[in-house]
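Re: the 424-residue chain
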Amino acid sequence: APGRRLAYSNDGFKIAGVVIEAVSGECADRYVAVHIMRPLHMDVSRARITAADRCRAATGYVRTAHHGASHGLHPRCLAPWVVGASADGSVISSGPDLCALVRMFLREGQTDDGVRLLSPASWATMRRAHVGVPAGLLGSFGQDAQLGYGLFSGELDGHRCIWHPGRMPGFSALFLADLDERLGVVVLANGEAHIEQIALHALRAVRTARHGQAPPGLPVVDPCVCDAPEAFAGRFIAGDPETLPREVDLRSEDVYVTLAADGERVRLEPSRFARDAFLVPLPEWERYLLRVQRDADRLPVVLTHGSRWWKRATEHDVAAVLPAPPAAPMSVAADSVQGRYSSHNRFFPCLDVFARRGALLLAMPGPLGRESPLVEIGDGVFRVGEEDWHPERLVFDAFIDGRPTRARLDFEIYYREECDGPLC
């Protein structure tokens, strides 16, 4: 039933844009400009991104490993410029303009001039908690967050707060508002940045200044610092004959987790978007996140990295923490569909399909490092996710000699890359 679970999708905002156009008779971007931006005096903002806007915007940067699990050691390069006018984020704005929007929220729907943009009922509906946010969607920020209509909400430092982050290739942004103190901050970055931590620190600094207290010290930015690194330590051996290296050793060293394999030891970087997952700064490990699977006692018993997996050297039952092989034969052979599929989607340019212990999985390499089991629910139609409520579907088609040359993830088409091995 609606409202019971959250499967976050930008398509919801696109649908809202279509509704705006149907009701108002105006293009969604013009409606936003006239009825929201103009009353707020957001004079440099617009709800449509064109090629001509690039010369007046900041230069965006992405990590060179955009098709893999990017970590802090990767150099940056110029980001592609994304044009569009869809209602899920095609906005160019500035810090001062977005602050005007945040002040409107802090005034419960009124502009600086006293013009009411939101009725009290609409404002209450927007910030009311409708559904809990799944772990990992917001990284370590707002672990007990709820989602209203376009606004995340929850307690941060004991204060009622609302916020919303946004990311696209080369840019990231966040507004954060403290409803109790009626304070807000906006963070804009021309690249992938720790915008949540920056915003929270800025809000703490403004809050303490208001009360005549000394501001908090600047946090030490070290992306490799791990909470409770001892909880990941262990020696793990390959779970099948194909997995290399044959042994992986995780250690707790001060506030870090280190990995030793094939005579090398490196410091791991905890993922900001996936729980119990790390980025490994070695070329052969950069494609996926290294994930730690735990048993019922929270002991790490399995490591996974794409199709590779390792089990704890001491005897433990691993069946409960790994996706189970399909109960019935699939309509397509697992070997025939494994590989990398690419598209011109600048947000999610590729996906990988691979098998682990007989179970088929989908990975979306990139900053989020998403990984999900594939469950066949019809002839060649796979649900992306174990539980039956997951909405996404993956379909393989355009077969040649029993091998698909395309994969359709919902409405996005990905074309298979051919290579010598099962994955290129």
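The two ends are 41 Å apart (CA to CA).
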